[in-house]
């Protein structure tokens, strides 16, 4: 058994507080050939479950949340419970697959059993099929979800097993409680100045904006999903030409997409406000351990920037400025202190945060590093892979960026009634990336003012 860290537990409390929240993370894949039979699939999943105990464990909550939730073996574990088959309506193309993924994103996980499922779509296009692997955010963050999907695929000799799961915390004794209190005091004494100084910009970012935030509103029961893609070599050429990162390009592409959708709706983007949440991995190394090891930045998108160069410049400088303020370090320090505090008090704070009707952050943009190799599953080549992000906390638009097979893909999820619908944002992202590529030859490094 091992206990959940505060950030892992937070996604349980978010789901408790908001029935419309979608707290699953998914990887969708398109594969060559025919779908496997049920016995064939169950045999493969059994092999992978035997490797990773977390796949057969469920969450056990303590009464009144007096202790942190913990992972325990599911005595009624049945692989068949976690596998589903679905069929697409004609013409069984990309649009129908996206509609199915959107519908699946709202399906809740059964907390009495392990928090994952595998969906098989038997016919997709010509001589192809699709797979959607989804897990609760309590179990994985984006990077861990991608690595777990890789682990389910055929062995290539380059994949490594998950890093060992941490040992469960010992049952508290008076000595340990005193020791924990001493450590909290030490952390506070050593880091209080840094925590207060670095948390100021983060706190200011999360306060309600005066003119509201695009995408921040109540979530309905339905979703939209779309996929955009671009050649990874072209993206790297943009990075080299402008002196920016892939993450900068992704955020700037979302900026340009939102701007163009607003203009198409007859709205002035210069008068609109959209602050986004950008998760940042804080994993100490390349280990593939499950759980959430992330902090976040909250830059505001420069929707008033009229050209590709202006958008890249301002996104690059705003993200760099936020990193320099120490927001990530402040969050890490706060989460480290939270792990030493009484669980019931931490749970109460997290529940309050989940119910807080924030209007400052309107979108999520997360970048997940995809596999460097071509994957296969039961001998079928994985032709395409893209991610399904979560949608919660009144955030009505989420974009998950990942790379695979020479392409950079943007999986876009939105509330069905959002003013920024996923399909339009996805199409606009592709147009923005194409415009960036056309501008690379006459562009130099970004040296202009923010």
TrEMBL record:
Residues 291-436 form the O-acyltransferase WSD1 C-terminal domain. GO terms for cellular component: plasma membrane. One of its GO terms (molecular function) is diacylglycerol O-acyltransferase activity. Transmembrane segments: none annotated. Its EC number is 2.3.1.20. The keyword NAD does not apply. One of its GO terms (biological process) is triglyceride biosynthetic process. Residues 4-250 form the O-acyltransferase WSD1-like N-terminal domain. It is an enzyme of class 2 (transferase). It comes from the Bacteria. Pathway: Glycerolipid metabolism; triacylglycerol biosynthesis; Lipid metabolism. The keyword Membrane does not apply. Keywords: Acyltransferase, Glycerol metabolism, Lipid biosynthesis, Lipid metabolism, Transferase. Belongs to the long-chain O-acyltransferase family. This is Diacylglycerol O-acyltransferase. It comes from Nocardia flavorosea. The lineage of its organism: Bacteria, Bacillati, Actinomycetota, Actinomycetes, Mycobacteriales.
């Amino acid at each position: 058994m091992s206990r959940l860290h505060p950030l892992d537990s937070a996604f349980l409390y978010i789901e408790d507080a908001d029935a419309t929240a979608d707290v699953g993370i998914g990887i969708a894949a398109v594969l060559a050939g025919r779908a496997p039979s049920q016995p064939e699939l169950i045999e493969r999943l059994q092999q992978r479950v035997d490797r990773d105990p977390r796949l057969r464990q469920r969450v056990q909550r303590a009464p009144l949340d007096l202790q942190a939730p913990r992972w325990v073996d599911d005595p009624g574990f049945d692989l068949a419970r976690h596998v589903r088959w679905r069929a697409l309506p004609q013409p069984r193309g990309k649009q129908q697959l996206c509609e199915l993924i959107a519908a699946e994103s709202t399906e809740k996980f059964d907390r009495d059993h392990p928090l994952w499922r595998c969906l098989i779509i038997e016919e997709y296009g010509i001589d192809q099929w699709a797979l959607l692997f989804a897990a609760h955010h309590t179990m994985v963050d984006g990077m861990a979800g991608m690595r777990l999907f890789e682990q389910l695929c055929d062995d290539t000799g380059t994949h490594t097993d998950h890093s060992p799961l941490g040992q469960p915390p010992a049952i508290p004794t008076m000595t340990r409680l005193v020791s924990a209190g001493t450590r909290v005091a030490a952390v506070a004494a050593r880091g209080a100045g840094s925590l207060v100084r670095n948390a100021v910009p983060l706190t200011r970012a999360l306060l309600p904006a005066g003119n509201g935030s695009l995408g921040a509103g109540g979530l309905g029961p339905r979703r939209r999903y779309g996929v955009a893609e671009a050649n990874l070599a072209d993206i790297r050429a943009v990075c080299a030409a402008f002196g920016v990162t892939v993450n900068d390009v992704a955020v700037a592409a979302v900026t340009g997409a939102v701007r163009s959708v607003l203009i198409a709706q007859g709205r002035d983007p210069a008068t609109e406000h959209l602050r986004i949440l950008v998760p940042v991995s804080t994993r100490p190394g390349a280990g593939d351990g499950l759980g959430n090891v992330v902090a976040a930045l909250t830059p505001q998108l420069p929707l008033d920037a009229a050209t590709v160069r202006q958008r890249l410049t301002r996104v690059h400088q705003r993200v760099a400025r936020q990193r320099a303020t120490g927001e990530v370090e402040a969050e890490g320090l706060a989460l480290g202190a939270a792990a030493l505090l009484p669980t019931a008090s931490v749970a109460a704070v997290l529940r309050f945060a989940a119910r807080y009707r924030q209007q400052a952050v309107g979108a999520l943009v997360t970048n997940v590093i995809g596999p460097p190799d071509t994957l296969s599953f039961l001998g079928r080549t994985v032709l395409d892979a893209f991610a399904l992000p979560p949608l919660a906390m009144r955030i009505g638009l989420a974009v998950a960026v990942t790379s695979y097979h020479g392409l950079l893909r943007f999986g876009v999820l939105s509330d069905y009634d959002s003013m920024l619908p996923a399909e339009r944002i996805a199409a606009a992202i592709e147009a923005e990336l194409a415009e960036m590529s056309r501008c690379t030859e006459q562009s130099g490094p970004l040296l202009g003012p923010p």
